[in-house]
Amino acid sequence: MARTFFWLMLLLNALYWSWAEGWLLPYGFGPLTQREPQRLAQQIQPQAITLVSQAEARLDVVAGPSEEPLCLQTGPLEEAQAALVRAYLESSWPADSWVFEAVPGLRLRLPVLPVALQARLPELTAVLPPGALESCPGSEAAP
Q1: Residue 90, H or E segment
Q2: Which of 115, 102, 101, 109 is nearest to 128 (CA)?
Q3: Residue 44: helix, strand or coil by DSSP?
Q4: What is the mean pLDDT of residues 107-135?
Q5: Per-residue pLDDT, 143
Q6: What is the Cα–Cα distance from 132 to 143, expressed in whole angstroms?
Q7: What is the tens place of the pLDDT at every residue in 72-99?
Q8: How many whole angstroms separate alpha carbon 99 and alpha carbon 97?
Q9: Nearest to 74, CA basis, from 103, 51, 37
Q10: Residues contacting residue 103 through CB under 8 Å, at least 6 positions apart
């Protein structure tokens, strides 16, 4: 009895394995294939996905963003220059991204210049006198 049960179980396992591997599909037996072509058609830029290991993902979280904001300032500006720069900044830059400090004259200070605004620096330097922007004291990033 045990011998018969053993051979029957071995035969059933072999049949199940053949079925699961798809070897019985030519005979009309086999698992249904799961396909969803409509999902593939709905993908948006699947080539932009990058797979990383867990260790690489942890390193990215620990390291944080690689771009650090700049701190820039100008030397003292004359009243006419300061008024022109103030008008430009009020019209197109966020109010919390710049400040005028009263020193002998006025000094423009960009205390935390995010990466998004760093791309707009050429527009600002066109309004300022040549070579006016410099790094803040204690800041190591150059303009």
Answers
A1: helix 79-92
A2: 109
A3: coil
A4: 79
A5: 47
A6: 10
A7: 888 888 888 888 888 888 888 887 778 8
A8: 7
A9: 103
A10: 76
Structure tokens at 107: 């000094």
What φ, ψ does residue 22 adopt, rounded to 5°? 85, 15
Q: Residue 127 has which token pair?
A: 């309004």
Model-wide pTM > 0.85: no
Q: Is 59 left (phi over 0), alpha (psi -120 to 50) or beta?
A: alpha
96, amino acid identity = D
**CA torsion sign, 19 to 24 to 27 to 30?**
positive
| SS3 assignment, position 106 | strand
Q: Measure the CA–CA gap between 53 and 73, rounded to whole angstroms.
A: 42
pLDDT of residue 17: 94
Distance between CA atoms of 82 and 45, rounded to whole angstroms?
46
Percent of the chain having pLDDT more than 70? 88
Separation CA 93–CA 77 (nearest Å): 19
